[in-house]
Amino acid sequence: MAVSITKVLLVEDSKFLRMANERALFKAGYEVLTAADGEKALQVAIAKLPDIILLDLMLPKLSGPDVLKALKANPATMHIPVIVLSSLSNKNEEKLLEDGAAAYFEKSSLQLDKNSDHLAAAVEAVLERLHREQNLDLRLREAASKRATNTGSRTSNRRTENW
């Protein structure tokens, strides 16, 4: 069985940060796709369907929030988790999370300009959290389905007993 490599779309308009982060993510074992503006981000996301998207807020052509809304409105991309990265304070965090972002990080907290491993660790933490949530959701749906099946069979047994 082949091991699947996580495909990350890195959307960053700063060439320096884009290259440094691409290198750090690649070194951590991710396949990295890049885009330097919002329009290109949407094109790449739709064409390549990455496993996760790292999205800068301040982008040329189409802003980060507009990219996020477009991704979440498109059935082909709405399931892709998006981590928003910004050099702005987290005053936008609540709105972005409401709009569908999986997480929000200030760039300074990840030390992106110092080629640190914090970005890869943040990606891994978000992916693990989403995986746990999906597993929990699946288990809850399976349990609900079993309850419905058991309730249905008890009801049908009662009906036959009354005959």
Structure, described:
The chain is globular. The mean pLDDT is 82. It has a single domain, classed as Rossmann fold (3-Layer(aba) Sandwich), CATH 3.40.50.2300. It has helices spanning 15-27, 38-48, 64-73, 93-98, 107-110, 118-162; strands spanning 7-11, 31-35, 52-56, 82-86, 103-106. The protein is α/β, with parallel strands linked by helices and 163 residues long. Strands 2-1-3-4-5 form a five-stranded parallel β-sheet, with helices on both faces.
Topology record:
Elements: E1 7-11, H1 15-27, E2 31-35, H2 38-48, E3 52-56, H3 64-73, E4 82-86, H4 93-98, E5 103-106, H5 107-110, H6 118-162
Parallel strand pairs: 1-2, 1-3, 3-4, 4-5
Helix pairs in contact: 2-3
What shape does the CA trace take? Answer: globular
> What's the CATH topology name?
Rossmann fold
Count of strand segments: 5
Mean pLDDT: 82
- The proportion of strand residues reads 5-15%
How many domains make up the 3D coordinates? 1
List keywords for this structure.
163 residues, alpha/beta, Rossmann fold, 5-stranded parallel sheet, 6 helices
Short description, anyone?
With 163 residues, the protein is α/β, with parallel strands linked by helices.
